[in-house]
Structures are given as C-alpha cells and as structure tokens.
Amino acid sequence: xxxxxxxxxxxxxxxxxxxxxxxxxxxxxxxxxxxxxxxxxxxxxxxxxxxxxxxxxxxxxxxxxxxxxxxxxxxxxxxxxxxxxxxxxxxxxxxxxxxxxxxxxxxxxxxxxxxxxxxxxxxxxxxxxxxxxxxxxxxxxxxxxxxxxxxxxxxxxxxxxxxxxxxxxxxxxxxxxxxxxxxxxxxxxxxxxxxxxxxxxxxxxxxxxxxxxxxxxxxxxxxxxxxxxxxxxxxxxxxxxxxxxxxxxxxxxxxxxxxxxxxxxxxxxxxxxxxxxxxxxxxxxxxxxxxxxxxxxxxxxxxxxxxxxxxxxxxxxxxxxxxxxxxxxxxxxxxxxxxxxxxxxxxxxxxxxxxxxxxxxxxxxxxxxxxxxxxxxxxxxxxxxxxxxxxxxxxxxxxxxxxxxxxxxxxxxxxxxxxxxxxxxxxxxxxxxxxxxxxxxxxxxxxxxxxxxxxxxxxxxxxxxxxxxxxxxxxxxxxxxxxxxxxxxxxxxxxxxxxxxxxxxxxxxxxxxxxxxxxxxxxxxxxxxxxxxxxxxxxxxxxxxxxxxxxxxxxxxxxxxx
Length: 562
Description:
The chain is 18% helix and 28% strand. By secondary structure, it is α+β, with helices and mostly antiparallel strands. The protein has a 4-stranded antiparallel beta sheet with strand order 5-32-31-30. A 4-stranded antiparallel beta sheet has the order 6-7-8-9, with no helix packed on it. The longest helix has 24 residues, at 37-60. The termini are far apart.
C-alpha cells in the first residue's frame, strides 16, 4: 500500500500564524486545529518570565536575554536561525553605557533641545521632527504657551484706589491725583518710592552710573590724571551748616540810592548770574534798575511814577515787564525793554481801592492781588483783565506761588493755610498753622513750605506730607517780633527771615539741618531795619533793602565758587 506524502512546510511559515488558525497553501485554505488552552497558558507564563528576567538584567546588569518568545517544537530550526540575530539586535538596543565625565552625551543634548509634549494619558514623549504642517503648527503653539505665564492671580489686576488708604497717599505724583491704579502700576509706584527713600539715606547712584568708554587705556589714564582734584565724589552742591561765608560788596544802589524806604527788591530770574539785573522801588515813587557786580553795581535807568508811591514791584517771569502797585485803585505794567508804560486804571468787576500787595507766577502770566474780604484777585498779565477769584474765610495777609506755578498758597487772619489748584480754581488742601496766630508771610520751595506768623515763629512744613498728618518739621523762634518776610534761595537750602519792627532783624536758616547760621549776621552787621530782600539767580548775591534807602549787597561764597 503506497504511503501518502506529507506536504512540505513553506520557509516563511510562522508557528504563531499556524497557531492562530491562518491558512497555508498546503492545506487548501482549511483552518488547522488550535492547541489546548493549558499549553497556551504555559506559553504565556513562560514569555512573561522571560520578559521579567530581561528587565531585571537591564536594571541590575547581566547578559541580555532573547525575548522573542517561545516557539513550537516543530519550528526549532527557524527559531535557531532567527534567535541569535534577534538577540544581537536587542542586546545592542538595551545595553547602557555609563559616562562619569559629567559632560552630556550627544544623544542627551539632542533630547534636551528637542521639545517635549504631553500625551493624553499624562506621560511625556519626545516630539520628533516632521515636515508636516500640523507638526510645525503644534510646535509654534507650544512655544507660545511656554512664553505665557503659567498662572495669573486675579488680585493682581484688581484696581487699587490710592485714596482708600492714608498710607498710600504718599505715592501720588501730584496732590490732585485721584485716579485708580492697577496692581502692576501700584507695584511700580512702590518701587519708585523705595528708590527715592534710599537715595536720601545712602548713595546708590554708583550702581547705575554711566561709565564713559575710552578708545584705549592710555586715553583713560590721561583723563584720570590730567587734573589735581580729588578722586572722591565732591559735594559742592551741598551747603555746609552752621557757618556761612559771606563778603560784603558795594551797595547795589550806591550810584542812585532811594530817597525813602526800599519797599521792593527783585532780581530778574533770567539774567546773568554773575552780573544779574535788579530793580528797587519805594515810597519815593521811583523804579530803578541796576546791573549788580561784585566790584561795582551800575545803574541802567529809572522811571518816576508821580501819582503812585510804590509798595510792591516784581518782574513778570523772564520777560522785561514789571508790575508796579501801591495803595491806589490803579497799577502799572512797565515794559523795561521798550520803555512803555501801561496804566491799568481799575480791575473791572472789583471795587478795591488798594492793590499794595501782590504775587507773580513764575512764568509771568498771572498776577495775584490781595483783595478785600478774603478774596484773592487773579489778573491776566497779558490782557490786564480780571479772570477769577479765590476766597479765604478770613482776610488775606500772604500769598505765594509754588515753584512750578501750578498752585497758590495763601493764608490770613484765621491762621489756616490754603492751597489752590490754578487750573481748576479749587482748594485742594487746608490745614491750621501750629502757631495759632495771624499769618504774616509765606514762602514755598520744591520740598518745603515756610509759614511766618505775627508772633515771630516760622514753621517749616514738608510739601510731601499728607494734610491729615500736617505737622511742622521745625519751629524757628529766633525772631522776637512779626516775621514779615520769608524767602527761599534758588535751591531751597537757605531760608531768609526778617522783621520790620526790630533793628537788624534778619536770620538765615540752613534748611537741611534746620539750624540758624551762627556766624552771620552779627550785632555789628549794618542792616538797620530790613524792609525787603531777595536772592539773585543761582544765589550768588543777597540784596537787602532797609529804611535808609540803601540796598545792601552781600556775596555768598559757596555759590560763587561753583
């Protein structure tokens, strides 16, 4: 009986395919019977044991194990042929190399530079380079997300009102500021406030100093040793306390002295600091102009007003115009350049019969007259027309403009200090002077307000203090009678105080230290009764008008050597 020939197994036959019931050319497409379940379970457990052993070898070291799986006995030849090659590939793939040099490998550098994205299951995978447009779009989107903040606090953008807390009012840039600030703006204001406070106590400008760049080292050395001055930072702008060096010069009006009390002395604010232009005026009805010098003062010209005993005269800003007033219902504006006199017979809408006291804004556009019943009358210097009023509760005794020309400070018989905004014509601040008596004079610098009273006390207030906590920085009691005049010099380091009721009644205060200069003036200084005074531009000269018609001139050496 002839034996049936068994079909040969094709070379590409896989035991897994046969186990899964796949068809082969030899059986005509019929499915082969599957293996028992116990054998499948054994194969699965054996494969899991191999994988576990392989992972153990990878972690703790050891020979890499072939984990291609368990094959049938019928396919041992195929497994022997494919097994070593697969084991070699797997060993190369899972073999680790330890680098103890501390430098990253090329693969690590490439991995760190490549962007990392998060999978949907929470894991991380490396983003591979792809030419697809979607991949580029995803990459740009991930870059934008990296630049954006990871988290924002809603309280940071919540509006903070400065007027809601007294402690935050010091952060205002101006007294009329009432706008709300956001969180970032408030943070910037606090940083600026801290920088200002630290500058007052310690020098921090070295941290932001601009270093000049030189072309070579020789040029830098030449500039460093080309002068014999000290290499340390100088403090020429800082006025030393206690001692003030002054030199008396010939009287400013020596060529043509006044024939009565010198009621007004005023320097032109835009004149030459070395030879400034000065005016004097008094009850002799004559306005005189002088060019002041250290060796000699020369008279420029003068003009006589027959019907007006002059009580006050002031330059209108940097122009050549002068406002002249007295105890009359009219006043004059004199153009010193063109020699033209404009008579203002009266202020329309007002019934005052005396305009003896006035103040002029720094830009010369506004004149503030003291009116009746507590009114401050504002007049435009160009049109000579009345433009508005400011009202005090008591009678007006003193007026002063702030250095920036934005505010008017006034006081009177009630002893309260008023501050008005010129543009809005509103009173933005009011507080009581600590002295309690009638105010007789006012002066304002960039940082300090000086209030003179009829008791002779001069109180200094900070311009940055809030009105709720307005208390004097210092009370000066060196004058025994009414403080009729107070005046700051150009940088606010000297405050001149005088009285008309006491002989030689003049004192100079060193504002930074709040102390009166002890060496000048003395009992032998020939001041007589002081009626007027003024500092020249850059404070190189101090002019003092007295009851004898003289304008005494002194040179301040500290400002002359700058």
